[in-house]
Amino acid sequence: MKVAIVQNPEEGSRLAASIFIDQVKQNPKTVLGLATGSTPVKMYKLLAEACKAGTVSFKDCQSFNLDEYLGLAPEHDQSYHYFMKTQLFDHIDIDQAKTHVPDGLATDIAASCQAYEDAIKAAGGIDIQLLGIGSDGHIAFNEPGCSLACRTHSQVLTQQTINDNARLFFQGRVDEVPTQAVTMGIGSIMDAKKVVLLAFGKGKQDAIAGLVEGPVTAMCPCSALQYHNDCIVICDEEAAGKLRNKDYYKYIFSQTGVSNA
Ligand code: PGA
User: Fold this and answer.
1) C-alpha pair distances (Å), 188 with each of 14, 112, 119, 261
2) Is the pLDDT of residue 28 over 60?
3) Is pLDDT above 60 for 1?
4) For residues 216 and 166, what is the distance between their CA atoms, to the nearest angstrom?
5) What is the Cα–Cα distance from 3 to 232, expressed in whole angstroms?
6) CA end-to-end distance (rounded Å), the chain
7) Rounded CA gap, 61 and 220, in Å?
């Protein structure tokens, strides 16, 4: 695992955007794995700017998002369909028919999850997966205690996740937040060829310490990424606050940059 400790979210977003742009330039047919949340917003703006400037084109890319709330229609302003459309897809040249977000309204959830896994496989797998991280160590909506091998599935959200996300819902109300989601599993995420995880702010300190320095445990689902062969963690000084080997990671990054961990 490679750890890039940056001064601030701006610098981290620039670094992440440059990794994605390089990847798409290298392989215009890249299968993108995308994430929602407040963390990637700036990076998505940078991708949109680069696309507008003609630096990169996503017209031959496909994308798969990590998760969606169960029970929210794509038009709901807190659905992840809506987030992706307004934060990224409407501002780049990707063919929106080739963008995929799990179906939060599926009546047969198991079949819908299997179809999502099949679609990723048919696309040739995810080339580069963007991740945020929850304060409880979740990635996508894989909450503490989930199987570290799980595939796309429905997940009951923890109270901590519901509380963390309430700020985005009507009047910040906890009872407005759906209690379940459909999410790619840890096993699905581990299959991505490359993983880029972003974390900013003090609230992510414990999760980042668990992710990078372990132990590997279902109580901190992101820690499974220690078994990923090409994972870069981009975090700001605040999120890196509880890393024991911070200076060592900084030294390695200063020597090797973003190349494979
Ligand atoms: P955030 O969410 O980017 O809004 O902090 C991250 C997550 O819960 O995965």
Assistant:
1) 26, 15, 12, 20
2) yes
3) yes
4) 29
5) 6
6) 5
7) 32
CA–CA dist 243, 126 (Å, integer): 29
Does residue 260 have a pLDDT over 70? no
Residues 6 or more apart whose CB falls under 8 angstroms from that of 131 comprise 35, 66, 139, 140, 189, 195, 196, 197, 198, 222
pLDDT tens-digit series, residues 30-46? 999 999 999 999 999 99
Taking only the tens place, the pLDDT of each residue in 64-103 is 999 999 999 999 999 999 999 999 999 999 999 999 999 9
Per the listing, tokens 């309204």 go with 105
For residue 206, list its beta bridge partners.
none
Residue closest to 211 by CA, chosen among 160, 36, 219, 261: 219
CB of 38 sitting under 6 A from ligand 1: yes
Which amino acid is present at 180?
Q
Q: Which residue has the tokens 């990794």?
A: 19
Catalytic: 67? yes
Cβ(163) – ligand 1 distance below 6 Å: no
Is the CB of residue 35 less than 8 Å from the CB of residue 131?
yes
What average pLDDT does the chain have? 97
Tokens for 46? 């940078």
| 238 is a catalytic site residue | no
pLDDT over 90, % of the chain: 96
- Residue 259, pLDDT > 80, answer no
Pocket test for ligand 1, best of 158, 164, 165, 189 (most atoms within 8 A of CB): 164
